[in-house]
Amino acid sequence: MAHDPWQERGRGQAGDGPVTRPPQRALDRHRLRHLLDAVGAVSTDMDTRTVLRRIVEAAADLVAARYGALGVLDESGTVVDLITVGIDDPQMCAAMGLPQGHGLLHTVVDDQEPLRVADVAAHPRSAGFPPGHPVMRTLLGVPLTMRGTVHGDLYVADKRDGTPFDDDDEGLLTALASAAGISLENARLYEHLKRVAEHFQRRMLPVLPDLAPLQAAARYEPASELPRLGGDWYDAMVLPDGATCVVVGDVTGHDVEAAPLMGQIRNMLRALAFDRGEPPGLVVSRLDRALMMSDDPPTATLVFGRVERGRGEGGQYTFGWSNAGHLPPLVVGADGGTTYLAPARHGIPVGIEASVPRYSHEHPLPPGSTLLLFTDGLVERRDQDIDAGLDDLAEQAARLATAPPDELCDALISRSRQVFDDDVALLALRIPSDDPAR
Q1: Are residues 99 and 182 in the same domain?
Q2: Do 265 and 412 belong together in one domain?
Q3: Parallel, antiparallel, or unpaired: how do β-strands 79-85 and 149-159 relate?
Q4: I need a surface site. Which of 62, 202, 284, 377 has the fewest CB within 10 A?
């Protein structure tokens, strides 16, 4: 509970001495400063719950109340969160649970008007208090509304000097409720936008086809903060010559334009790969020339490759690839050994200069090994060097060398955190094992 520097020194009992109060002008300045601070918190970068807690603290402080609370409603009108001030025991709050939608508190939501009660117990809609709840005598509550929608209610109880709440208290609480209503509506719009953006992004990514005898799995995770539309993608398909084509890429930029540009580049590359069974470097060169026909060509980093088996019985699988400014693929052996495929001749991103040569490379894929292609969101952290992220990925992948590709992808996505600074695309391809039991 925030301390009120203007509260009384005592209640006038014997030996307490005289009650001291500040001049009214000083009190008004104090209230105005706290009101402006609380309203200003809505426009900061703090998370919604932190903003709402500050508003509740300011409400209790401004009207010198012992208790304050803010109830958050979902779109169906059910209380889904309750932020309290003045009850310091978290176990008590957890035991009491959320309000059940009846009694005085719900009157504020039903009537959508401020409510002042001088004697809670005597009010006809009072439902009493749950076990362990402090007994409160006076109440002031206001609804949190925005554009005719009720998002919750803000209320305080029991002034420290024992007096009832007045018109000034109601005006201050109403102003704070307006700020809280804006914050809650913004939070709802933010969550809705995230859901829509993520759905749009996922609809643009392919469902992996059957690549048997290879096993494959892929994952996409959007950035944790808006914008959730990104340019990362994965793709895989079987080519007419029997080779399996794989690609992971990242279009420059993370805004509304990145996702459709990703779709454009992905489709171009699919068509070029399907048209001719050329080495990966030549396919990427063709993509460069196609992109440079645009007045404002999109740019992207990518790894494009072919997985194919040598001729004859027992032929070994190989991975032929070309890297256009992207992070190197990772090969994880069945024994847990790891190798990043990072040859010296590393190409620049596509869409920059079509005359720059592209290179093709080859690497064997032993039985039971796993090829991992990924975008930088999987290994980049704001607080560490990217080499540390690559080392961590290799270490974690080695521990899961024989796990099914789906389990491997899930574990790598969630291995160290739930917050992604950038979106992530991950593709895992498992080579058949010589051991028929595996």
Answers
A1: yes
A2: yes
A3: unpaired
A4: 202
| 246 within 8 A of 236, measured Cβ to Cβ | yes
CA distances from 64 to 270, 298, 326 (A): 67, 59, 59
Q: In terms of domains, do 284 and 181 share one?
A: no
Domain presence at residue 272: yes
Residue 186 makes CB contacts below 8 A (sequence gap 6+) with 42, 48
* C-beta of residue 425 within 8 angstroms of C-beta of residue 374: yes
Count of residues making up the chain: 438
Exposure string of 175-199, with b = 16+ CB inside 10 Å and e = fewer, is: bbbbbbbbbbbebbeeeeebeebbe
The last residue of a domain, from among 176, 195, 214: 195
Contacts of 150 (CB under 8 A, 6+ apart): 73, 77, 109, 112, 143, 144
Instruction: Give me the residue label for tokens 């079509």.
Output: 354
DSSP 200-239: HHHHTSPPP---TTSEEEEEEE--SSS-----EEEEEEE-
Domain of residue 301, residue span: 204-430
420 token code pair: 């992604």
Angle subtended by helix axes 280-291 and 258-275, to nearest 10: 130
Report H helices in 233-341. Answer: 258-275, 280-291
Q: Where does residue 86 fall: left (phi above 0), alpha (psi -120 to 50 degrees), or beta otherwise?
A: left
| Ranges of the chain whose pLDDT falls below 50 | 1-22, 24-27, 45, 226, 228, 436-438
| CATH number of the domain enclosing 348 | 3.60.40.10
Instruction: State the Cα torsion 177-178-183-189 to the nearest 10°.
Output: 120
**Tokens read off for 169:** 């208290």
- Asked if residues 4 and 34 have their Cβ atoms less than 8 Å apart, the reply is no
> Does residue 66 belong to any structural domain of this protein?
yes
Question: Domains in the chain: how many in total?
Answer: 2
- In a domain, residue 46? The reply is yes
8 Å CB contact between 89 and 125: no
CA distance 250 to 349: 10
How far CA 313 is from CA of 239, 334, 428, in Å, comes to 21, 21, 25
Q: Alpha-carbon distance 384 to 417, whole Å?
A: 14
Convert the pLDDT of each residue in 11-50 to its tens digit.
334 444 444 444 544 445 555 565 556 555 555 545 677 7
First to last CA, the chain: 61
Q: pTM surpassing 0.70?
A: no
- Residue 99 shares a structural domain with residue 158: yes
Cβ of 38: how many Cβ atoms within 10 Å?
A: 23
Check residue 347 and report its DSSP letter.
B
